[in-house]
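Agenda item 2: calcium ion complex prediction
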Amino acid sequence: MKQVTVDFDESLIIDCFSQGQVVMVDALPGTISKIVNEKTEIVVPAGEYLCTDFEVYKGFCSGSKEDLNQSGGFLTIKSEPEGSYHYSEWVVGFELPGNKCNALKVLFSGKYSTWRSQSIYAWDYALNTWGRVDYRTLTPSLNSFEFPLDPKKHISSEGFVELRIYVYSTQAFTGFYDMLKLKVS
Ligand SMILES: [Ca+2]
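Presented output:
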């Protein structure tokens, strides 16, 4: 909540009401005091952040979220057949101690039993939908890479970030996920 005093203007009052904000007329002629319900912006300290949870929607999983926290030890997901394709689909959640930063990146390291094209989506809190943020083919050797997210779209007002990892193929496969973190700078 923030109180500001602005020059009196009828259109401003109407506009404030239309946004669900509270407007109070001040005792001083020609001015009003406006109570604004501002979105609180909390800056996330620079550093690396580990996932808080994950959920597998398609595929057979072994391992835990701790496997994603550092190199060595894999979270593995074996694809699940459905119709004439094999799928793996899982969602990883992060909880940042804030909702604003200048630069946000995903750090990923993993491989597949055989070459597979992997899509990573991030939940877009502005559009309320998944948006694809990375697409590449991963090899059976460890693939380590990073890519940016948009802090304005991909962090909720409560500091949540969600990533969805999606792969499908005509042939069965297994994903070996070594590391999945966020980096804030
Ligand atoms: Ca690991």
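Discussion summary: The chain has two domains: 2-36, 47-184.
Owner for follow-up: CH.
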